Amino acid sequence: MDKWVFLNREFVRSEDAHLSIYDHGFLYGDGAFEGIRAYNGRAFKLKDHVDRLYNSLLALDIKMPFDQAEFIKTVEKLLEMNEVTDAYIRVSVSRGVSLGLDPKNIKGQATIVISTDKLSLYPQSMYENGLEVVTVATRIANPQVLEPRIKSLGKYVCNIQAKLEANHVGAGEGLMLTEDGHVAECTGDNVFFVKDSVVNTPAAHLGILEGITRATAIEVLKEMGIEVNIGVFTRFDLYTADEAFLTGTAAEVIPMVKLDARIIADGKPGPITKKLMKAFHEYVAKQS
Fold this sequence. Notes:
It is a single chain. By secondary structure, this protein is an alpha+beta fold. The chain folds into 2 domains: 4-117, Aminotransferase class 4, branched-chain amino acid transferase, N-terminal domain (D-amino Acid Aminotransferase, Chain A, domain 1); 124-287, Alpha-Beta Barrel (D-amino Acid Aminotransferase, Chain A, domain 2), CATH 3.20.10. The chain has 8 helices and 15 strands. Strands 7, 8, 9, 10, 11, 12, 13, 14 and 15 form a 9-stranded mixed beta sheet that branches. A 6-stranded antiparallel beta sheet has the order 2-1-6-5-3-4. Strand 13 (243-248) and strand 14 form a beta hairpin. Helix 6 (212-223) packs across helix 8 (271-287). The two termini are 22 Å apart.
């Protein structure tokens, strides 16, 4: 566990960091968050994550007490204080403190928490041998109801329920579909598959989170000269794919070799997936 966290406008010892029981984030999931990776002591794609955070807060009409430049410096300072190299940075911002739904009753400024710690989603063996995934019954939230570009504190209730379903059957991940049955995303990762040397991934308008690692993977694939197609797909496309993989801040790039007991291709991480995994780590090394 990290020694220091940032709480509102000061750095405090982690054991001394406390929130009000009437914080809107705790009571109602009223806020936004980001998960950011640090490599070699530097936050990866920090500006992109902070841009997304501030856009989420703008859409939620939550006022930040300082600008993006100061926020970035705060994250960097916390990494330095905790003397961490590889870490998972968690940023949470709630509307503030008040009992009751009405935002006009909020007392004071937004609640801001930044921490740095370790987070490992999958064992190394899954990166080497691939991940088994199962389709879950829980659907992603309809984008007409919950704007997917807002990374809200309450956004992941559906994903957590979906993860429970996957856990119950011993699967490494759960594939979530739209209400129309189209492939959307996994509980914590974006989905990609390869067919005839073209990499495919679901479109943002389906309600997926536009992941920072997803965007990085697309960028790296294009630099490798590999075509990327963004569209609308069903599970049939995954069942019959040449290879498949998932991306996420914590997961990075991980192969998917089985879906709903159907073995994808030969059941091993595919050549494009392995090339991307290597290229992604080289990309990260250059950025850090």
